[in-house]
Design goal:
The protein is α/β, with parallel strands linked by helices. The protein is built from 15 helices and 13 strands. Strands 3-2-1-4-5-6-7 form a seven-stranded parallel sheet, sandwiched between helices. The chain has a six-stranded parallel sheet with strand order 10-9-8-11-12-13, sandwiched between helices. It starts with a strand and ends in an 18-residue tail after the last helix.
Length: about 375
Amino acid sequence: MKIATVIGARPQFIKSAPVSRALRAAKAEEKFDEVLIHTGQHYDHEMSQVFFDELGLAVPRYNLGIGSASHGQQTGQMLAALDKVLVSESPDCVLIYGDTNSTLAGALAASKLNIPVAHVEAGLRSFNRRMPEEINRIVADHISGLLFAPTHAAVKNLRDEGITNGVHLVGDVMQDALAEHMVVAETKSHLLADLGLTSRKYILATVHRAENTDVPERLANIVTALNALARECPVIWPVHPRTLKCLREMEKPSPGLRLISPLSYLEMLTLERHAEIILTDSGGIQKEARWLDVPCVTLRDETEWKETLKDEWNRLAGADSEMILEFSKAARRKFQDHSRSSVKSAHAAELIVRALHGADPTFQLYGEDSVGASA
């Protein structure tokens, strides 16, 4: 069975790695030929190649080299390039991940050619259609014939939209990736020593979403809050290229607010694991924080991962500087002495491969939603 996997952005590299390994490890009678197609949405070394190197991903058979552009232009260029590749390869299925423009382009290109689509991380909803990602995931789900949902809530979202056929509750492939790579990250990384940091004595921050970086008032409010926190505790901020361009006119960082270059996956896992708390607008990091038992403050007004909000492990602060400060200080007090457990695999990749082969029409998660506690 030939599977064409379309990826293009950092989160997709992480999500696809466990599934690619499971495809390669499939039994002889379930043999898969995976054609890896990199759209080039993330193209520089820090946001692309380093993840292939660390995650053990095969060299893409195709790199479309699309690069950055407006949403419409980027998606259109991807569609045109993917059309040629899919016609040439004639795969049995196109496998897509998440909610980026690469996801949307892969779904549309396949559907135009009557190639079945399988969507990993199906059913997520923020219920905010101003987000490009929300439109991407809705369209992708309604095009897909196989929908791999990570949580019960995602299954319910699909059912509410009339999608029930082909839905599989498999767990979260990002939890598989985290379980596989956390030990490696801890043994290989000297990042804390290199940065002069002590475990659970610093705050980790990440900001990259357009709703924050492209709105000067929101970004200014976030920087104000980070500066205030940095006067009490070191704040480490790996700066996304998009964000760096927008910071030139912002308030000067206080000495404790340390802006550093983007990090590799393993380096980022190390910083997440040892942070006192995490402030982020990343969906993936919200989940990783929960699995790692690290309190999180999300710099958004809503989240697709509502399971992370249980017991106030994650709190939505938006870009309100006072709320960011309040929630951050509360989390530091409340979870100061909380112990942290190891992360278990969700076995999502194995279940996805079984579903692709058609071995078992229905699956159940092990225990609770995969975004719940890691233990």
